[in-house]
Amino acid sequence: MATSRTDPLTLEVVQLIGSVVARYYEEYEHAAAEHSLTGAQARLLGLLSLEPMAMRKIAQKLKCEPSNVTGIVDRLEARGLVERRPDPADRRVKLAAATATGLTTAALLRDSLDFAREPLAELSDAERRALRDMLQRMLGSGNGPDGG
Amino acid sequence: MATSRTDPLTLEVVQLIGSVVARYYEEYEHAAAEHSLTGAQARLLGLLSLEPMAMRKIAQKLKCEPSNVTGIVDRLEARGLVERRPDPADRRVKLAAATATGLTTAALLRDSLDFAREPLAELSDAERRALRDMLQRMLGSGNGPDGG
DNA sequence: TATTGTTATACTCTATAACTATA
DNA sequence: TATAGTTATAGAGTATAACAATA
Questions:
Q1: Is the CB of A138 less than 8 angstroms away from the CB of B117?
Q2: Which amino acid residue lies closest to nucleotide C7, measuring CA to C1'?
Q3: Could you report the per-residue pLDDT of B118-147, keeping only the tens digit for each?
Q4: For A98, which of A12, A23, A48, B107 could close a Cys bridge (C-beta 3.0–4.6 Å)?
Q5: Is the dihedral of CA A68, A44, A30, A137 positive or negative?
Q6: Cα separation, A35 vs A108, whole angstroms
Q7: Is this model's pTM higher than 0.85 or not?
Q8: Which helix (H) or strand (E) is B84 found in, with range?
Q9: Beta strands in B5-64 (DSSP E)
């Protein structure tokens, strides 16, 4: 397993990462709430702002059951942020897509997530590169790139 | 506000932080589920594993309404992981405290959170210190220490 | 009168299982 | 028969408002 996973410095960094995660989540929920969205709705809308997607694929990306996606898309659709389209290639499939309003909301949402961005401005370019490399290594161990 | 918040490197780091957050959350929920706990239950138990705490204080720490704490403590209490005690100093207050079983479960939970720890072992001591300092700076901007 | 914890209510998210329509 | 999406159901988390006990 590990050599010195429990040294004080490592434990301190682990705790800091936990704090960053908690802080990021709070900010995300808060930003979503400012647009009267739940966190799950905001995440789904953010996903669709990149490209339309089959319901099943959304569930995979969000790592939840397909039945949940139905409800979340229902609520976003009722507010005009998302719409369902048929898939010409397979009549079983429904593609969920962000509407123009949905894209605008998604962009506003992204802009309001300043937590992760603001403090980064305090870091030098070299530090940001170092941080990037370390985070990539953290994500790389035991987990491929986002894949699809 | 900022000078160059939208340069490619910063955006890349922001996205990486988002990935780390998502990954951390998954691992946390998974670790909790292995002990038949929800994420909220695991967080509350982790909090009580440090020290007994008034219901109201728990709500502040978890940043939720006090009425929610009642239900979560109810479920943990029903499983023998937590108990309610009177506060000698104020008879309105109920102190929630982890039982011996609860403390054991909390310890197991902490140990199974290897995601944040394992990859850190790949970093050099200097890198870990640099990461710690950067994370501290990130958390420091616009947010004091945990406080109470 | 204010505070602590609880209860009642309603909504959202979640997983499971059964269902419809396509393939 | 297998797959995509939905529906039905039940449990959990969440916020709001109203309540009892205590301060």
A1: no
A2: B67
A3: 777 778 888 889 889 988 988 886 544 443
A4: A48
A5: positive
A6: 9
A7: yes
A8: strand B82-86
A9: 53-54
pLDDT recorded at residue B40: 98
Contacts of A128 in chain B (CB under 8 A): 9-10, 13
- B117 and A143 within 8 Å at the Cβ level: the answer is no
* B13 contact partners, CB below 8 Å, separation of at least 6: A116, A120, A128, A131, A132, A135
How much is the average pLDDT of A38-46?
Answer: 98
Nearest residue (Cα to C1') for C11? A38
Beta-bridge partners for A84: A96
Domain A11-111 maps to which CATH number in 3.40.50.12650, 3.40.50.10810, 1.10.10.10, 1.10.260.40?
A: 1.10.10.10
Among the listed residues A96, A91, A86, A83, the one whose alpha carbon sits nearest the alpha carbon of residue A56: A96
Contact B118, B125 (CB under 8 A): no
Interface test with B, best of A4, A21, A61 (most B CBs within 10 A): A21
- Token representation of residue A96: 């969920």
- Asked whether the beta carbons of residue A26 and residue B131 sit closer than 8 angstroms, the reply is no
Domain boundaries of chain A, sorted by first residue: 11-111
A33 at interface of B, judged by CB pairs closer than 8 A: no
Residue A116 pLDDT: 65
